[in-house]
Design goal:
This protein has about 240 residues and is an alpha+beta fold. It has three domains: about 1-95, Deoxyribonuclease I, Chain A (4-Layer Sandwich), CATH 3.60.10.10; about 110-160; about 170-240, no CATH class. It contains seven helices and seven strands. It has helices spanning about 1-5, 30-45, 115-125, 135-155, 170-190, 195-225, 230-235; strands at about 10-15, 45-50, 70-75, 75-80, 95-100, 110-115, 155-160. The strands form three sheets. A three-stranded antiparallel beta sheet has the order 1-3-2. It has a two-stranded antiparallel ribbon with strand order 4-5. Helix 3 (about 115-125) packs antiparallel against helix 4 and helix 5 runs antiparallel to helix 6 (about 195-225). The longest helix is centred in the C-terminal third of the chain and has 33 residues, at about 195-225. The model has no long low-confidence stretch (mean pLDDT about 80). GO terms for molecular function: RNA-directed DNA polymerase activity.
Length: about 240
């Protein structure tokens, strides 16, 4: 339902009684609706607008909660206030929203891990088989090993910001990538050689498909410019391309 509402406009405001509890906006335990809405907000770059005071005061239960709030799309400025003026178990909520302040687009980042550095870091940080004399030693070794893995990933990973839009690969290439990853995981779990051969074969096919896809897209761009690859080569070699 939220997808349907937010898909109708570049900017949108949805407010109401969502019957949803989550630690992000309400005291007490979360419920299923709260978890679903919280994840939807986090995954779609939306803004939660909830009052600091509770909005729901059950007659026969001592605990209060915040069930009434707002969700904003591409709007970053606003305020919500719970008003204790009615005899109802729900307080009305007053919203002040500046629709002229847009939410900045999130930066597109890709994390790239150098697995050679990762392996070297693990090799230097993990001494080998530790001595474990009791359960406490085992728990301590597990915590230390987990910490070493996390540290190695962080040291070997760099983030790169993508200025333009992500490249949209055709669905058949995406399906091949998923299938290749599935075979690679199966091989890592079973060490069954045919899985490894299948993963390598798909990797080669994926590389060829992506090269062909990029070349075809480049040819279509040249056709749109009214050029051929030969003419483009001539223009570049004679320094005429600067005048286009």
């Amino acid at each position: 339902e939220l997808d349907r509402l937010f898909s109708q406009s570049a900017k949108a405001i949805v407010v109401g009684d969502f019957n949803a509890k989550h630690a992000a906006w309400s005291v007490g335990r979360s419920n299923t609706n709260g978890s679903i809405i919280h994840d939807h907000i986090a995954n779609n770059n939306l803004v939660l607008l909830a009052p600091l005071e509770p909005t729901h005061f059950p007659y026969h239960h001592p605990s209060s909660s915040t069930l009434d709030f707002g969700i904003l799309k591409n709007i970053s400025s606003g305020d919500a206030t719970s008003i204790n003026d009615l005899s109802s178990d729900h307080n009305p909520v007053a919203f002040e929203i500046n629709v002229n302040v847009s939410l900045a687009s999130p930066a597109k980042k890709v994390n790239i891990t150098n697995w050679t550095i990762f392996c070297e870091t693990i090799y230097n940080r993990v001494p080998g088989n530790p001595k474990t004399n009791n359960i406490a030693d085992v728990d301590d070794c597990i915590r230390q090993f987990t910490c070493n893995i996390t540290t190695a990933v962080n040291l070997a990973t760099k983030s790169r910001v993508i200025a333009g839009p992500f490249r949209q690969l055709p669905s058949f290439i995406v399906d091949k990538i998923k299938l290749k990853n599935r075979f690679r995981k199966l091989y890592q779990q079973t060490f069954y050689p045919p899985y490894k051969r299948k993963a390598y074969k798909l990797q080669r096919e994926i590389h060829e498909d992506i090269v062909n896809f990029d070349n075809n897209r480049w040819r279509e761009t040249l056709v749109g410019w009214g050029l051929t690859l030969y003419l483009l080569t001539v223009l570049i070699s004679t320094n005429h391309f600067k005048t286009l």
